[in-house]
Design goal:
The chain has helices at about 15-20, 55-70, 95-110, 140-160, 170-180, 205-210, 230-240, 255-265, 275-285, 290-305, 315-320; strands at about 30-35, 45, 55, 75-80, 115-120, 160-165, 190-195, 245-250, 270, 310. By secondary structure, the protein is an alpha/beta fold. It has a domain at about 25-245: Aldolase class I (TIM Barrel, Alpha-Beta Barrel). Helix 2 crosses helix 3 (about 95-110), helix 7 crosses helix 8 and helix 8 packs parallel to helix 10. The chain is globular, with a radius of gyration of 20 Å. Bound molecules: ligand PBG.
């Protein structure tokens, strides 16, 4: 027995534990991803993500105001269009669902929150890939970059503060930055999905997006086996002008979050994705873990690994607990 070596002294009461907590989670560090569905007149529940809905433009507006009142740090918008085509035209169309929703929220909220938008074609293409296809059916990197540039300008015009290129095309940050500069949007930032893995845990999200994807995204999203490659992706994005970098998924890739936080000199975000959300919801619904404790533990762990910002479908609920 070494009476002078008792770490448990620092765990004796809630007040003591609060005093010595090394990691904190603040509502301002949480970003709420939201879905808006073209033509919806009321919120449509997403079956695989209990508690998450596809919003109508009207319900989105209301939910966004509530989220900002709850103290969340930002909102990340995804659009679910009614019509899709081979080149994802809806993404660049100023009257496309995502751009309309951005306009709604910017006029409602101004600069009160940080408005972010997913910058990717998968929502808008009929084949469901994140880019356009060449004659042989492969995702054409450089042809896609040209569209990302136009989509970026459309989103900036619609009022997004931060654009989130999530398609994992090579050179996407540089292409988006160049297009924004050329159009005069020098203050519109880029939250780069730098290390985005090809994950089975995106399943519920693809349900929420009514994704038409056949096959997989392994020729552009990263192999779960690789860490060093993630650091290369981050370095490239930083060279190309990323204002923030992101790792996705979060919980299964905490080693990547940690390694990225060590090398990045910009804020690091991590996306707690749909499958990570659904797993905890399912376990809690089954009575296999305590829901609130599990959610807070998951957020704490993502922060502990080194994320400054966490995208999470629990952003509003967790903010209420953390206030
Ligand atoms: C693709 C995109 C994905 C997610 C957000 N944007 C993944 C994909 O379908 O490959 C996943 C988000 C989630 O699972 O919560 N643009």
């Amino acid at each position: 027995m070494f009476p002078d070596q008792r770490p448990r002294r620092l765990r004796t009461s809630p007040a003591m534990r609060r005093l010595v907590a090394e990691t904190t989670v603040r509502p301002s560090q949480l970003v709420l991803p939201m879905f808006v569905k073209e033509g919806a007149t009321e919120p449509v529940p997403v079956a695989t993500m209990p508690g998450v809905v596809q919003h109508s433009r009207e319900s989105l507006r209301k939910a966004a105001v509530e989220a900002v009142e709850a103290g969340v740090g930002g909102l990340m918008l995804f659009g679910v269009p009614q019509h899709k085509d081979a080149v994802g035209s809806g993404g660049c169309d100023p009257n496309g669902v995502l751009n309309l929703a951005l306009r709604d929220l910017r006029s409602e909220l101004g600069d009160e929150t940080v408005l972010m938008s997913d910058l990717c074609l998968d929502e808008f293409t009929d084949h469901g890939h994140c880019g356009v296809l060449d004659a042989s059916g492969r995702v054409d990197n450089d042809a896609t970059l040209e569209i990302y540039g136009r989509m970026a300008v459309a989103q900036a015009e619609a009022g997004a503060h931060l654009l989130g290129p999530s398609g994992m095309m090579d050179g996407q940050v540089a292409a988006v930055r160049a297009a924004l500069e050329e159009a005069g949007f020098t203050d519109t930032g880029i939250l780069a999905y730098s290390a985005k893995y090809s994950s089975a845990f995106y399943g519920p999200f693809r349900d929420a997006m009514e994704s038409s994807l056949q096959g997989d995204r392994r020729t552009y999203q990263q192999d779960p086996a690789n860490l060093r490659e993630a650091l290369r992706e981050v370095r490239l994005d930083l060279d190309e002008g990323a204002d923030m970098v992101m790792v996705k998924p979060a919980m299964l890739y905490l080693d990547v979050v940690h390694a990225v936080a060590e090398i990045a000199d910009v804020p690091v975000a991590a996306y707690q994705i749909s499958g990570e959300y659904a797993m905890i919801e399912a376990a809690a619904a089954g009575g296999w873990c305590d829901r609130r404790t599990a959610i807070l533990e998951s957020l704490s762990s993502i922060r502990r690994a080194g994320a400054d910002i966490v995208l999470t479908y629990w952003a509003v609920e967790a903010s209420a607990w953390l206030r």
